[in-house]
Amino acid sequence: MSTSLLYQTIDQLSREKGIDAQIIISAVEDAILVATRKYYKTAEDLQSHFNKETGEVEVYAVKKIVEDVGDPDHEISLRDAQKLNAEAAVEGEVRIRKATDVLGRIAAQAAKQVIFQKVREAERDTVYAEYNQRVGELVNCTVKRMEGPDVIVDLGRTEARMPRKEQSRLESYQIGDRIRAVIKEVDRAARGPQVIVSRADALLVQKLFEMEVPEIYDSTVVIKAIAREAGERTKAAVYSKDPDVDCVGACVGTKGMRVQSIIRELRGEKIDIIEYNEDPLVFAANALSPAKINHVSILDMQEKHLEVIVDDSQLSLAIGKKGQNVRLAAKLLGWHIDIKSEEEKRQEIESQMAAMALRGAPISELAGLGDKTLEKLRESGIETVEQLAQKTPEELMQIQGVGEKTVDRIRRVVTDYFERDQSGAAAGAEAAEAEEGGAADSAEVAETANAEEASVDTEAKDEAAATDTSAGVEAAGAEHVEAAAPPEESGKTESTEEAETPSSGGAAPDGTGGEEK
Fold it and tell me: Are residues 323 and 391 in the same domain?
C-alpha cells in the first residue's frame, strides 16, 4: 500500500464512519509504531508522526544526550549526537529516524488490526455521544436480524438491540418489519450494539399520546403517571391545566379515534385513561376503575398504605384478572393498596372486637394498687384483671416483693372491681326493668282509669234504674192511695202522677235518660 493510497483511505473512512480524520490518523500512527517496535525488537522510546504532505508515517527513536552513556536504549553520547545534529548539546534530545519500508507483511497485518480496533473504538464513542443525548426519544427502525431472543434493528447510522424483556408479549417480528420504539439506554461497555430500544416501556405509550393528542404535545394536558404491563393493559393518569379542556375526552378523541390509533400501534393492548387528582383518596378511587369504590382510607401515611372497601359484587372487578387492576393502580399511585369487601371488613371488625373482649381489662384499671405492685405483676406476666383473678394466693406470693398483706389487698381490690362491675350491670338491668315497669305502670294506670270510668257509668246506670223503680213503686202506691182517698183529693193525686210519669217514661224506652243522669 503506497502512502498516498493510505491517506486517501483515511479520508474516505472518516467520511463513511462520521469520525474525525485526526482520530484515524492517530490510530495509524499507533499502528505503525507497534509494528516498528515488533520488527526492531527494541526498548527504545519510539515516536511516530504522520506527514500529511507526503502521506508517510515517520518513526523516530528519541534519546537523551549525556556525557557518559549508561543506558544505550534511552541515552546517547554527545559526540554521536553531534553526528546527527551539529547543534546537539548535553541534556538535550535527539531523534533518530527508523526505516519503516522494511516492516514486512506480518507487521503490516498487525498495523491493520490496530487501525481497525482504533476506528471501532472511535465509532463507538461517536455513537455513544450522539445517542446518549436521545434517550427517551421515539425512533423509527427496521428489523434487521434475530440473535436468539433479541431483535437487532437498524436505526440508520447504527444498529440497536431490543432484548426479550423489552418486547411486547402480543408481538412477533419478521425481518424487514418497520416498527416504532423508544431509546431505553446506551451501553458503552456492550460488545454488540450499544443502543437498547424498547417496545415494552411505558414511555412508548406516552410518546404515542404526544403524537396523537395535540393537547398533550402543547402541554395543555399533562400525563402525570403511566403504569403498564406490556401486551395486556396500560393505565394513564392525565391532568388538564385548562379547566375548559376535558383531559380524558381529549385523549380519547371523537368516537375514540385517538386512543384507538394508539391501541392499533400496540397490537390491541387495553388502555385505561383516568383523571389525575392531588388527593390520593380520590386518585385511588379513579385508578381502580372500572370498579365502583365505596370507601378509601389511609392506613399509614409514612409507608403510603391505603385500604379500599368495595361491595362484594365489585371485589373481583377491583382486583382484576390475576390482580392486574389493583397492581397497576398501585404502581400508578405509588401507594400500597389493600382491597376488602364489605363482608370481609365486617368480619375483621368483629374479630378485633372479640379479641379485645378476650384480652380483658388491663390491671391499671384496678383502683387501690400502687405503681410498684402493678409493675411487679406485669413483670410476672400478669397484664389483665382476669389473669390476676385466676391466680391463687400461693401463686401470687411466689412473685418477688409480694407478701401476705399485698395478696390480701390484691384480692380485696379485685373483688371490689368485679362487684362494681356487677352492680353496674345490675343497675343497668334495674334501669331497663324500671323503664319497662314504668311503661307497664302507665298501661295499668290507663287500664284502671278506664275501669273506674266504666264502673262510674255502671253505677250511674244502676242508680238511674233504681230511681225509675222507686218512681214506679211510688206511682203504684199513689194508685192505692187514690183508691182509698176521699173523692175531693183525687185531682191532686192525678196531677202528681201526671208530673212524675213523663220523667220515668222518658228514660224507660232506650235508657238514654239514665246515662244523662
Answer: no
